[in-house]
Write the structure tokens for this entry.
Amino acid sequence: MPQSERNERQRMRPAPLLFEPSAAVADPEHFFDLESMDDPKELLSRATELTLAFRAATDRAVEFQAIAAARLADPRRFDRLTTADIAERAEWTEDYARKMVEFGRSLLGRTPS
């Protein structure tokens, strides 16, 4: 496998996100135990893993938002919502809601009716 492909696969494989104990979450200085790491190489490595994991999680969450928006705007639903309604619920602009509905439809593999 070429080095660039190997790097891309490694980059796309996010670190597992472990839930922190509630006591740790209550401490604003605590963040996935990064503050306790003394070795800067280890700190950089783990912080990078977390960054990639959060980016991957964000990307997936946005895809699910788009799918939900598309389903809510589906003209076949008797209770469908307008893009203005979706924008209000998601705290988006109406233009962004329209784009998310389109993106969601593309993810679902269907075009608007």
